């Protein structure tokens, strides 16, 4: 069996930046163990698979995401990458794409060069960090919050950049990884409301380059703190990425660009192997 594969750099306007995602369109679902094996072989933070749903009046595609280790319920950059492939490579021409996913109904709209994700808000609640967290993080957080993902708020961008956490400790926390965030900056060349990094070693991702799902929690926090609904966010991993976000009630709109890096074919089966 031969499958078409795309690799897209998401939340960036250039290759070798943002977060790379693999996208594999399917006509029907393959067994879950095959999907997981494909994601492991790709060895990217996420591989997205989607199947058309022509008999479903509420959705255009069923979308799923796999890390090298597990299936996840929500992924921003691989959703953006999937939409970019549908619009730019597969001829989708509708005003929006309606996805059915584990996290519920998701919509992506094309707005010029940007793809806007309509995702659920996952507002955090103040909490106490677990015992040993400060030592594992290497610095005491200004505030600590819990949602589906944990979130530590630090003083400034320099503190976020300096974080080198104990990955074994982070992997053992009872949540979907750790967000580290701080106020942004305005230096004349760009205005950034907040910065962040995200660590998910439990999912086989020590540090994710740019994480749309993390901003489902980051944006409600900073919208309240800053008293504004429109938030320009930057994830300051080594690759880096830009997210243009809006808190809209119980939804977070997350927009970004995407660039095609690679298109190819995946051979599921024997490939070049020979018998005899």
TrEMBL record:
It comes from the Bacteria. Keywords: Isomerase. InterPro entries: Phenazine_PhzF-like. The keyword Isomerase applies. Pfam families: PhzC-PhzF. GO terms for cellular component: cytoplasm. The keyword Chloroplast does not apply. The active site is at 46. GO terms for molecular function: isomerase activity. Belongs to the PhzF family. This is PhzF family phenazine biosynthesis protein.
